[in-house]
């Protein structure tokens, strides 16, 4: 609305005459119909009869023009550009990635938080244009850069310190089930504030014979505080690892100069289930023979910023009563190709009806690997294009008791893969993320047939001893009751 209407009033919007609020004169609005109304006569009336009010009106109009002149309607390309995702190396993306990395390190969060649905939704709500980096990008790119910056900062502070004290401690993280032995430096800064920094941390095992002490040329005085000789800071910093130890995807603590071991995946399943195609889809290239074979095959490669080792085990048959000797030997051979053992076992099942006979055949083969194999097993459903409008959850619920049994055995750890579209890398990234989450759930341990066989033997031995004690107590109790009966 124009500023002129603070000096005039109307009885209704359709009036062709406005009344001056100062002299109560009736001023025409320039026409008899609403479409022809204008404000020229009203402004002229102020200019002729109320010069002071007209000057105020002119200043108010100019201020509005100046304020509105700063506004510029954005062009269409500029509007569309605001919807584009940030490039990974853009300043905004790098800043957000650094802040997320600080959140993980300072709050001792597992790297799997990057895959959590709630965390993803929060980031997408706060900044829709930001693309969440993979955990391997965090480990390989962001954390090393942060390590370098923190290292330089600690070196600067230690060079300024007049005295440094050292302590060692054994501790463990809530998210990394390993004992760590750390070396911590303590000093007082120029503001007389006590400062400290963890200079080094290593996995601590009872059988290790490694030394975890400062270099031999560091001479200690009688007191706890020592004056650092020349070059001491460089010797200490050479041991420095990022103060919240970087946990690799395999659950093993790695220093900045170490390389994460490859994720070892063993692919098993019945013949003609798309098992070899699963390996090809994961690696993004044809490395396994999809026409069938009599021997297991091994392939190494990189996929979605991860180093992988895949073993495609020879497919088994449909006999539900007896496992042929050759199948058993080939399954154990495939397991040996994953030395020291697979991190995750991918059990390939087509998205078809899972029958009772298939369950029985599967159960016979998995028994060869002991009951402990289920802790490391994830079901990979092939023929993902058959889902169409049905969700995988609905398929599991309506597929029958046999598939429900399989899901309970695997703790409902599954993934759907469509081998017909291997260029869809998002499905592969999701599978590898789930595999790494399983590895963390298992404390970073791989599957070992020897270890689980010994555990089963130990459990059986303890169970027998417990049963023997129960029988013995029952027998002693019976003799006591008979003795009481005789006395009575």
Brief descriptors of the model:
488 residues, alpha/beta, Rossmann fold, 6-stranded mixed beta sheet, 14 helices, G_AIG1
Write a structural description:
- With 488 residues, the chain is an alpha/beta fold.
- The protein contains 14 helices and twelve strands.
- Helices cover 41% and strands 15% of the residues.
- The strands form three sheets. Strands 8-9-7-10-11-12 form a six-stranded mixed β-sheet, with helices on both faces. It has a three-stranded antiparallel β-sheet with strand order 1-2-3, with helices on one face. Strands 4-5-6 form a three-stranded antiparallel β-sheet, with no helix packed on it.
- It is elongated and about 120 Å long.
- About 11% of the residues have low confidence.
């Amino acid at each position: 609305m124009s500023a002129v209407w603070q000096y005039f009033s109307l009885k209704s919007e359709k009036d062709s005459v406005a009344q001056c609020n100062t002299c109560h004169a009736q001023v025409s609005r320039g026409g008899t119909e609403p479409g022809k109304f204008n404000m020229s006569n009203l402004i002229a009336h102020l200019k002729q009869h109320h010069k002071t009010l007209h000057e105020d009106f002119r200043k108010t109009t100019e201020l509005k023009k100046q304020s509105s002149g700063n506004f510029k309607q954005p062009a269409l390309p500029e509007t569309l550009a605001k919807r584009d995702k940030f490039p990974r190396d853009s300043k905004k993306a790098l800043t957000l990635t650094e802040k997320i990395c600080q959140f993980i390190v300072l709050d001792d969060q597992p790297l799997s938080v990057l895959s959590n649905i709630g965390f993803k939704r929060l980031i997408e709500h706060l900044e829709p244009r930001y693309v969440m980096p993979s955990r391997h990008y965090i480990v390989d790119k962001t954390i090393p850069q942060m390590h370098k910056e923190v290292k330089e900062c600690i070196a600067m502070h230690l060079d300024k310190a007049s005295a440094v004290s050292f302590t060692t401690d054994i501790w463990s993280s809530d998210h990394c089930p390993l004992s760590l032995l750390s070396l911590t430096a303590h000093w007082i800064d120029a503001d007389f504030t006590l400062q400290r920094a963890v200079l080094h941390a290593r996995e601590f095992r009872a059988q290790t014979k490694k030394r975890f002490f400062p270099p031999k040329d560091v001479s200690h005085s009688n007191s706890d505080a020592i004056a650092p000789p020349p070059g001491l800071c460089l010797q200490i910093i050479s041991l420095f690892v990022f103060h919240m130890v970087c946990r690799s995807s395999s659950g093993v603590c790695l220093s900045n100069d170490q390389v994460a071991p490859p994720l070892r995946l063993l692919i098993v399943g019945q013949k003609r289930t798309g098992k070899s195609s699963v390996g090809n889809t994961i690696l993004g290239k044809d490395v396994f023979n999809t026409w069938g074979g009599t021997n297991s095959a091994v392939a190494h490669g990189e996929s979605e910023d991860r180093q992988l080792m895949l073993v495609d085990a020879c497919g088994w048959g449909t006999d539900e009563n007896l496992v042929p000797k050759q199948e058993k030997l080939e399954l154990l051979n495939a397991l040996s190709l994953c030395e020291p053992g697979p991190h995750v076992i991918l059990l390939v099942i087509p998205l078809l009806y899972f029958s009772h006979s298939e369950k029985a055949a599967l159960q016979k083969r998995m028994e060869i690997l002991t009951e402990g194999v289920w802790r490391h097993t994830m079901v990979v459903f092939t023929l993902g294009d058959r889902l169409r409008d049905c969700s995988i959850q609905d398929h599991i619920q309506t597929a029958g008791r046999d598939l429900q049994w399989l899901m309970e055995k695997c703790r409902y750890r599954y993934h759907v893969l469509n081998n017909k579209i291997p260029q869809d890398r998002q499905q592969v990234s999701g599978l590898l993320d789930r595999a790494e989450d399983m590895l963390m759930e298992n404390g970073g341990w791989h599957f070992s047939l020897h270890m689980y066989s010994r555990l089963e033997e130990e459990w059986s031995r303890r169970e027998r001893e417990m049963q023997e004690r129960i029988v013995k107590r029952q027998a002693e109790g019976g003799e006591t009751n008979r003795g009481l009966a005789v006395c009575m």
